[in-house]
Design brief:
single chain; six-stranded antiparallel sheet; mainly beta; globular; nine-stranded antiparallel sheet; 3 helices
Length: 518
């Protein structure tokens, strides 16, 4: 079954890279440029990793400013870097150039402090377990971590037992014996380093556990964004004995309200589930939120869609959700289920988590954060092989002369579209709680289809602007692209439509290309 995921990932990567190359072919820039793409419907900034020649800077073609970066690794003649790409436009791109630098970027010296702090949080590390002892929200004046929990925040847990069959964890039953489980928390940990790169703080720790020789934990604290990232790299042995693996996140809440996002909505398991439904573990789309007494915490388990609330999976099969303590266990793997699953799971695994907090749960904001985290900014490095015709290399590639020369070359080669050599947005939406999901050719060949997902909870009118298209007509359709109501057009570059809470809205547009004149 893992081959389905591996093949899907390879195909998605192939489609992404070819799509970026097709767009780059219409941008009048030559080799030595990096085009950063934002495929979401709101402007955003983020970190981008790529290889560059040694002693080169990354320069924003729109502003002329150098982008800050850190060196992650080095090879013969190149560095693998992570740089800050700022203000990438909605569903658009920004161009960066790689320019020789007289002096290399200064790299932060590693330290060994057990505390990381910014204007949002103060984080205290616990190297012995490879996790976190305390997270203090400085804006809310609240401690987020339950200090009385038997587990640290983000701690790896290996659970053995359940081999003696029959028992309740192997199949649904209220009469079979309870499983004999034993929890092994990670231990023998150590602090590798604490550094302060340009975007915040980064701590790296290592620990180990039963059948798990190494768990490497990287914790990132950002200066400009109220979030903490946990990156867990697990090196695990493959065994056939029954096992479960979790990461524990004990929050300082005795009886919180739990919510979690599903594919197109939000579930409160204490209110929205029938008696007798599955209350042992829960499938999470992007985020889990816990709220109590003016504090809400959001946890995004980006690579592990199952979670348990209050305790690990004990095979109890409760009829009601009940009142549970505020601990979330990310249920990353088990081999309890026999049919069509591998008997053992071993190898190297990476799991990402993001934490944020606020006075109250903001579901649309958490959903936007979730989409940002699983939809990173993509980068395409332009080489001489990418372009049949490359524009002249001038000292100022964004100058009017360079742009005119490049545009003339593209037009003479028959290019159907000439895009801005610095930055461009293909589409903008006036509502940040509407996710732009799809833009594709219509099945019947008449125009193109745009699909939108509402992340909010109110009916409202949404306005969409497409600067590179002249729109002649637009219709709201159903999911199989049958036309419904024709939409009014405020001008020939936009349309508006009504969206309902959690609706998937589909729109057909018919028009012509306007980007050559643009």
């Amino acid at each position: 079954k893992d081959r389905y995921a591996v093949n899907a990932n390879a195909l998605a990567d192939f489609i992404t890279r070819n799509s970026m190359a097709n767009v780059v072919s219409a941008i009048p820039v030559g080799a030595g440029r990096v085009v950063v793409f934002n495929s979401l419907g709101w402007k955003r900034s983020g970190l981008v990793s790529l290889d560059v020649e040694k002693e080169h800077d990354i320069v924003d073609a729109a502003t002329g400013r150098k982008a800050p970066y850190e060196i992650l690794d080095s090879g013969r003649g190149f560095n693998h870097i992570r740089f800050a790409a700022d203000d990438i436009p909605t569903f658009g791109y920004k161009v960066y150039s790689m320019q020789p630098s007289p002096s290399p970027a200064e790299q932060p010296a590693p330290g060994h402090s057990l505390t990381m702090e910014n204007s949002f949080y103060r984080v205290t590390l616990d190297p012995s377990t490879g996790s976190v002892r305390s997270i203090y929200d400085k804006q809310l004046n609240r401690e987020l971590v339950n200090a009385s929990s038997p587990y640290r925040f983000g701690q790896y847990l290996y659970v053995s037992g359940g081999d003696k069959a029959p028992n309740r964890i192997l199949r649904y039953s209220h009469v079979e014996p309870k499983p004999e489980l034993k929890i092994h928390p990670s231990a023998s940990g150590s602090l590798i380093s604490v550094s302060h790169p340009f975007y915040g703080w980064v701590a790296r720790m290592r620990s180990e556990d039963a059948n798990t020789p190494s768990v490497t934990t990287e914790i990132r604290l950002f200066d400009q964004t109220k979030k903490i990232e946990f990156v867990e790299e697990v090196d695990k042995k493959e065994v056939d004995s029954k096992e479960g693996v979790y990461f524990a996140f004990p929050f300082a809440m005795d009886h919180p309200e739990f919510q979690y996002e599903i594919q197109n909505g939000v579930v409160n398991p204490a209110k929205d589930m029938y008696p007798g439904a599955g209350h042992e573990w829960f499938p999470v789309q992007h985020w889990i939120a816990l709220q109590q007494n003016g504090l809400s915490v959001g946890l995004l388990p980006l690579d592990a869609p199952l979670a348990t609330f209050g305790d690990i999976n004990l095979g109890q099969w409760p009829d009601q959700f009940g009142d549970r303590r505020g601990t979330v266990f990310s249920y990353v793997m088990n081999n309890y289920w026999d049919t069509n699953y591998r008997a053992g799971q071993g190898g190297r695994f990476t799991f990402h988590y993001v934490l944020t907090s606020s006075p109250a749960t903001d579901a649309p904001a958490l959903s936007r954060l979730g989409w940002e985290e699983i939809t990173p900014l993509e980068a395409d490095s332009v080489t001489s092989q990418d372009k049949a015709l490359s524009p002249p290399q001038e000292e100022n590639p964004g100058s009017a002369a360079a742009q005119e020369a490049a545009a003339n070359q593209l037009m003479s080669s028959g290019a159907a579209c000439i895009l801005d050599p610095r930055t461009e947005s293909f589409l903008s939406i006036d509502d940040p709680s509407v996710l732009f999901e799809t833009w594709k050719p219509a099945q019947d060949g008449n125009g193109t289809i745009l699909r939108f997902l509402d992340l909010g909870d109110k009916q409202r009118t949404v306005n969409v602007h497409l600067p590179l298209l002249h729109i002649d007509q637009a219709w709201q359709t159903n999911a199989v692209e049958n036309d419904g109501r024709q939409l009014s057009l405020p001008d020939d570059h936009g349309f508006g439509f009504v969206i309902h809470p959690h609706e998937i809205a589909t729109v057909r547009i018919v028009g012509s290309n306007a980007c050559q004149a643009h």
